[in-house]
Structures are given as structure tokens and as C-alpha cells.
């Protein structure tokens, strides 16, 4: 209501053709974490990606120790797919990330929005 920026969410690296996939990214400010805002944003983005953009797969990655991020992805229907070694450089260090995906054809991945 007051116009404050709580966080951000992106869907980028959209691949058309046989893949029909995109990559989800997000962050939320610490004061607003665990209040349901990011769960709501991810649910809306997943619905939009599957229904409007006609994507088949949405991918996401986070640090293995980021339990809240893993939880928000799992709550949104994303399934764990494995570990990517040296996936991103953070603070000058290459860091492993856990990989998740939400598939349009997977009924377990449906969100309450769609």
C-alpha cells in the first residue's frame, strides 16, 4: 500500500523452440521475508509463464544452505533436480547451487492461481 519495494522477481533466459523454458530469479528484503509475499509472487509468475507465455518448464537455483528459498520453491511446486557445481560467482567465490524446476505437465506443480 505504501509503495515500498519489498523485493523483485524475474523470468529471464526464455528459450523458445523445442525447450519452451525460462529461468526464475527472485529476492526479498529481510524485513518482508516469511510473510508470504514471495510465495504469492512466484505463484502468479508460474501461472503467467504457463498460461500466457505457454512455457513448458521453469527453472530456478539457490544456494544449498538457503533453506527459506528452497522452501518457497517447493511450496510453489518446484521439484529438486540436483546440484550444479560452481554455478554462480558470489562475493568472488564460485558457489554450488541446488537446481529446481516446475513443469507445466506435472500436476503436482500446479499453483493455486492456475
Name the helicity range.
Answer: 10-25%
Largest sheet: 5 strands, mixed
Can you list the strand order of the major beta sheet?
A: 1-2-3-5-4
Order of helices and strands: EEHEHEE
Q: Give the tally of structural domains.
A: 1
Q: What's the CATH topology label?
A: Aminopeptidase
Query: What is the helix tally?
Result: 2
Binned strand content: 35-45%
The number of distinct β-strands equals: 5
Low-pLDDT regions: none
Average per-residue pLDDT, rounded, comes to 91
The CATH architecture category equals 3-Layer(aba) Sandwich
Give the distance, in angstroms, between the N- and C-terminal Cα atoms: 25 Å
Give your account of this protein's structure:
- The chain has helices at 37-51, 67-75, and strands at 7-15, 21-28, 57-62, 79-90, 93-103.
- It has 114 residues and is α+β, with helices and mostly antiparallel strands.
- It has a single domain (7-109), classed as Gcn5-related N-acetyltransferase (GNAT) (Aminopeptidase), CATH 3.40.630.
- The protein has a five-stranded mixed β-sheet, with helices on one face.
- The longest helix has 15 residues, at 37-51.
- The mean pLDDT is 91.
Features:
114 residues, alpha+beta, Aminopeptidase, five-stranded mixed β-sheet, 2 helices, globular
